[in-house]
Amino acid sequence: MFLKGNFLYTPSRTELTIRENQYAHIENGIVTGFTTSLPESAGAEKVIDYGQDIIIPAFVDLHIHAPQYINRGLGFDEELLPWLEHYTFPAEGKFADPVFARRVYTAFLERLKAEGTLCFSAFATIHKEATWQLMELAETMGFKAYIGKVNMDRNAPDYLLEDTDQSLADTEELTVRCQEELHRVRFIATPRFVPSTTEKLMTGLGRLCEKYDLPVQSHLSENRNEVAWVKELHPDLPSYTDVYDAFGLLRQDKTIMAHAIYLSDKEKSLLGNKGVYLAHCAQSNANLTSGIMPLRRNLEQGLTCTIASDVAAGHTPAMNKQIALTIEISKLHALQHDTEKALTIGEGLYLATKGPGRFYGRTGSFETGYAFDALVIHMDDMEGLERTPFEKLQQFIYDGDDRNIIARYVDGELVVRG
Ligand code: GUN
Ligand code: FE
To answer: Which residue among 312, 339, 340, 354 is the one 20 to 30 A from 199 at the CA level?
Structure first.
């Protein structure tokens, strides 16, 4: 198949490739290269011409809470710990009902699809049945995803408090069922955060991760009161990061830690050595008054950072809006640290496509060998005011929405909306 249009993608954080009026060749869902005209050998192969529209890699969101979709925008007068208690836990408790869960998860996935996030890593809740519903729905709706059943066996209300052995048994059952029945959706170990998981649970999860070679996702150093609480709970370990490491939960190149705002140099070096993906959630960090991650400094120190929505602490799953906000906050941060450079548009696109895509595999770019996971974006051209592909990208990032995304592809196949 050949697709014609204006392709924009980021082979590296500092490189934005723009292929204007070119043909992408896609074979078995994989990009095999670009040409400036249709080759003679094209023969009877299908050609789709998207004219002056731009085509970018589909977005990848490495940190989002699927059940919290019902709570977007709620409770932001509170900081993290009271917000969890007053808003998030009661919402997650509702997912004991798998019928309710299926309804919410269908709406959640439809919204992600609309906004162009076709690959993601999500927290579900502690509930096994509801988590399976999310996994199955994500698979049948065509997403690439990591999905985790949340583990919590301390400091939670009764209705979200698990028995430790049952939590581990349910986690193992879902891991095996997912491996046997699903293809694009994979299981990820999901201890909520250190205050929610006892040492026994973390030890058991570490063992399961070894046994099934599982990736891990959790939260790290998001809020000052949370960090102090972890210190109280684990006074013998040197840092929050060390707690995860002590229980085998920083798995080499297979771990996502959300927020990671308040880190010592030692913690950064451990996270760097373990190849941990730091999911930077700028909108969430602002909404819950959590703090400002020193993104530029982290990137320059070689840490892997990605842009993530953290719905519902982030109020929108739309990754174009998350990119714009991350850049805006990065500019304000740069103003107060005058040696620092703000994030650029190209960097923002990378941190929401190829950067996080590496966690899943070859997605997030149009280099040869990458899956053709893409969004076709139509921005209105007014007569006499034609915009370049790069200008269209900027206007989509700042002021575009799902109405501008006129086609979505996963593995070279058109994804239909429900
Ligand atoms: N830390 C522990 N749980 C959560 C959660 O659901 N959202 C956020 N933002 N932080 C958390
Ligand atoms: Fe989160």
So the answer is: 312
**Probe residue for ligand 1, chosen from 74, 155, 219, 243 as the CB with the greatest number of ligand atoms within 8 Å:** 219
> Is the same domain home to 138 and 26?
no
Task: Residue 110: give its domain's CATH number.
Answer: 3.20.20.140
Burial of 211 (0-12, 13-18, 19+ CB in 10 A): exposed
Residues 355-377: pLDDT tens digits? 999 999 999 999 999 999 999 99
Report the separation in Å between the CA atom of 323 and the middle of ligand 1, taken as the mean of its atom positions.
20
Per-residue pLDDT for 335 more than 90? yes
CA of 125: how far to CAs of 89, 148, 189, 260, 337, in Å? 10, 8, 12, 22, 39
Q: Which residues line ligand 1 (CB under 6 A)?
A: 65, 80, 84, 88, 192-193, 219, 222, 284, 310, 313
Closest ligand 1 atom to residue 65 Cα is 6
Q: Answer yes or no: do 20 and 144 share one domain.
A: no
- The domain total for the chain is 2
Closest Cα partner for 159 from 95, 229, 67, 103? Answer: 95
Instruction: Name the closest ligand to CA 287.
Output: 1
**15 and 122, same structural domain?**
no
Assign residue 39 the CATH number of its domain: 2.30.40.10
Is 146 in contact with 87 (CB distance < 8 Å)? no
User: Quick one: angle between helices 164-181 and 128-140, nearest 10?
Assistant: 20
**CA of 260 relative to ligand 1 center, distance in Å:** 12
Instruction: Decide if pLDDT at 339 tops 80.
Output: no
Predicted local confidence at residue 303, as pLDDT: 98
Express each pLDDT in 184-215 by its tens digit. 999 999 999 999 999 999 999 999 999 999 99
Q: What pLDDT band is residue 381 in, cutting at 50, 70 and 90?
A: confident
CA–centroid distance, 6 to ligand 1, in Å, is: 39
Verify that 198 and 275 share a domain, yes or no: yes
Q: What is the domain range of residue 294?
A: 59-360
- Place 293 in a pLDDT band, splitting at 50, 70 and 90: very high
Residue 195 and residue 334 in one domain: yes
pLDDT band at 417 (very low <50, low <70, confident <90, very high): confident
Q: Are residues 7 and 147 in the same domain?
A: no
Residue 40 has pLDDT above 90, yes or no: no
Give the atom of ligand 1 at the shortest distance from the alpha carbon of 313.
9
Which burial class, exposed, middle or buried, applies to 76 when counting CB atoms under 10 A from its CB (0-12, 13-18, 19+)?
A: middle
Q: Say whether both 70 and 134 belong to one domain.
A: yes
